[in-house]
Fold this protein.
Amino acid sequence: MKYIIFGVVLLLANCSEGSSGGSSNKTSVKESNDTSEEEESSKTSEVEESSETSEEFSDEKPMTEYASSYVSPFPNMTPNTEFDETIPVYISPVELEVEYIGEKEVKVLEGVITTKTLENKYFWKISGEVNVSSGSTITVEKGTTLFGVDTSSKLIFQKGAKIFALGDKENPIIFTSQKDILENSPNGGDWGGLQIFGDEVSSGTLKYVQIRYGGSGRNNGLELYSVGLGTAIEYLEIYNSGRDGLILNSGNVNIRHLLLIGNRGDSLVLQDWGGKMQNIYILQTNSVFGENSAGIQIEGGDYNMVISNMSIESLSQNAGDGIYMDSRSYIHLLNSEILGVRDGVCIISKDGVDNIENYKLVGTTFGKCGGGTSWAEGVSERDVLQEKIEISEESELSEPSKIDSWFDDYSIEYKGAFHPLSNSKWSESWSIQ
């Protein structure tokens, strides 16, 4: 009996737990159903809202009205309210033409340019008048070639601009004409040339440089204006200019190892220049200006000017005069010579005999000049200057290094541009001569 009652009690207890668990499950199901109903209600609401929104935009209002009410998340930017309804058109990229001469690419210099390096892996075309602005520096790698397109082409360095063109014996830097590059009968005056407007300090360096076929119009091969003592120029050749070769207008830049070959006007013009030169070779050929050209034309003069070891040689009778001295000019020439055959005069003075105290030619000799060794304007007799100016005997060669330490101190002084005992000339390898 006792066991029966215990069993009934246990059975009743189990039933009670089962009933309680069932109630809990029913509650969970109810809660789940409630949640589903809420989600369904929410979805229905969203659909209704979407439908309403769709209905709002379904009218025939222009899109720009909606765009004007658009609030950008980027307040500092103006939204684009212009809607282009045209279909976008694909534009193919423009193909840039690249010019080559042989296998080398051509780069163009034009207008006003600033600091840059001209690499020798390119040709550099000077198109029209090219100006290097003040404060800019142009560096030219050794072995680089630049060329002018036509008679309008020239390269101008404004005051304060600098050029560093440092070639070497095996790799000179060349400025020339397009005709020369294309081997199409180049000639003097094919292009303008170079102009450098300097200052009292430095305009850079020109070393192992050739300037060919310049001198178009009133231009000249190379023109230096007020170029200062800090500028270094040596191993420079100016070849076949259509007008003057080198013009030095004021300034006091020094020049060593200079070749002036076949220039059709004056080979060298000195206008109030006050520097020094050593080892200068001038070769005069058939001048288009005849008697109006000279190996050197001197206009005015600075009493600091000294030239040593110069040779002026002519290959043509109409090559012009050797040295032309304008009014109130000064010259101090050492260990030099005027060679060859010419119809002109070896040295001519426009001053007559009034300014001869300013002519000093020491250790200098004159060759065969059809017009006479010397002549003074207004004086009928030829060679009158030779009697009055200081022309020493050959044995009395000067030692320019004692005048100024800038000059090379040779163990044996000699006359002319090239040492007679040297096995090679300083002009070999790098020049066009």
User: Anything to note?
Assistant: The first strand starts at residue 100 and ends at 101.
